[in-house]
């Protein structure tokens, strides 16, 4: 499961970058980051197919007023059949969200 190793490496790199990008001053606020990992396995006896999936979702950045946010996710799915070697699919997304509302 080489694909699962790659996604865990990406999550680890994101975590290290989040920690190392914080300013070193005493007055700097520490940004809290959360990384959600989901591992799932599913087997279908009828088709003799097994699916393993690993997904990581993280809040990468947020503005000071929290009106602008960048989230990222990565997903790896490996499907294997009893007669075949299987296939692996990769997916990565970056989501930018900004609230345009003004307090009147």
Outline of the structure:
With 104 residues, this protein is α+β, with helices and mostly antiparallel strands. Helices cover 18% and strands 48% of the residues.
In words, what does this structure look like?
- Residues 1-21 form the signal peptide.
- It comes from Drosophila busckii.
- Keywords: Signal.
- This is CG33493.
- The protein has one helix at 2-20; strands at 35-44, 49-62, 68-81, 87-98.
- It has a four-stranded antiparallel β-sheet with strand order 1-2-3-4, covered by helices on one side.
- The chain is elongated.
- 18% of the residues lie in helices and 48% in strands.
- The protein is built from one helix and four strands.
- The chain has a single domain (2-20, 34-98), classed as Outer membrane efflux proteins (OEP) (Single Sheet).
- A hairpin with a 4-residue loop joins strand 1 and strand 2.
- With 104 residues, the protein is of the alpha+beta class.
Main beta sheet: strand number and arrangement? 4 strands, antiparallel
Q: Radius of gyration, Cα only, in angstroms?
A: 19 Å
Report the CATH C-level class: Mainly Beta
Instruction: Find the count of extended strands (DSSP E, 2+ residues).
Output: 4
- Rounded mean pLDDT is 76
Order of SSEs, N→C? HEEEE
CATH topological fold name: Outer membrane efflux proteins (OEP)
The total count of helices amounts to 1
Cα(first) to Cα(last) distance is 54 Å
Q: Per CATH, which architecture?
A: Single Sheet
Percent helix, as a range, is 10-25%
What number of domains? 1
Residue ranges: pLDDT <50 for 5 or more in a row?
A: none
- Shape, principal axes of CA atoms: elongated
Beta-sheet strand percentage? over 45%
Give the helix/strand class.
alpha+beta
The spatial strand order of the largest sheet comes to: 1-2-3-4
Protein name: CG33493
Signal peptide: 1-21
Keywords: Signal
Organism: Drosophila busckii (Fruit fly)
């Amino acid at each position: 499961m080489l694909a699962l190793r790659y996604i865990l490496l990406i999550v680890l790199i994101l975590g290290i970058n989040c920690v190392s990008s914080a300013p070193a001053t005493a007055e700097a606020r520490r940004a809290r980051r959360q990384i959600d990992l989901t591992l799932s396995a599913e087997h279908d006896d009828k088709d003799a197919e097994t699916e393993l999936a690993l997904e990581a979702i993280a809040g990468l950045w947020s503005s000071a007023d929290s009106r602008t946010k960048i989230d990222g996710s990565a997903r790896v799915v490996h499907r294997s059949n009893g007669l075949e070697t299987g296939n692996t699919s990769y997916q990565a997304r970056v989501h930018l969200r900004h609230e345009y509302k003004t307090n009147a």
